[in-house]
C-alpha cells in the first residue's frame, strides 16, 4: 500500500504516504523508510521533497536507537540520510525544501 502511495500521481498522496510511513516506529522497517525518503527527495514536487526533508530528522535519531547492537549499520543508515540532506541543500531550488533541509 505504501509503495502505491509513494508512486501515486497526486503529490499530496505521495507526501501523505511518506509521512505515515516514517511515523511508524518499528525497527524492522527502518531501511524501507530510508528508501522511501531517498525516493521522495528526488520527487518532481517541492511539497513531497519538503516532506522528505522533514522525515530526515525523525529517521536520523532512530538509526542509532533501533540499531544499538550494530553500530556499523546505524552509521551507514545515518550516512545515507546525511547524503540525502546534503543533496537537497546543494541542488534544490525550492525555498520550502531548503528551509526543511536546514532544520533537519
Structure write-up:
- Helix 4 runs antiparallel to helix 5 (about 70-90) and helix 5 runs antiparallel to helix 6 (about 95-104).
- The mean pLDDT is about 90.
- The protein contains 6 helices and no strands.
- With about 100 residues, the protein is mainly alpha-helical.
- The N and C termini lie far apart (about 25 Å).
Can you summarize this structure?
By secondary structure, the protein is mostly helical. It contains six helices and no strands. Belongs to the adaptor complexes large subunit family.
Structural class: mainly alpha
Strand content: under 5%
Number of strand elements: 0
Low-confidence stretches: none
Multimeric state of these chains? single chain
Distance between the first and last residues' Cα: 27 Å
Q: Which sequence of SSEs, written as H and E, runs from N to C?
A: HHHHHH
The helicity comes to over 70%
Protein name: Clathrin/coatomer adaptor adaptin-like N-terminal domain-containing protein
Family: Belongs to the adaptor complexes large subunit family.
Organism: Entomoneis paludosa
InterPro entries: AP_beta, ARM-like, ARM-type_fold, Clathrin/coatomer_adapt-like_N
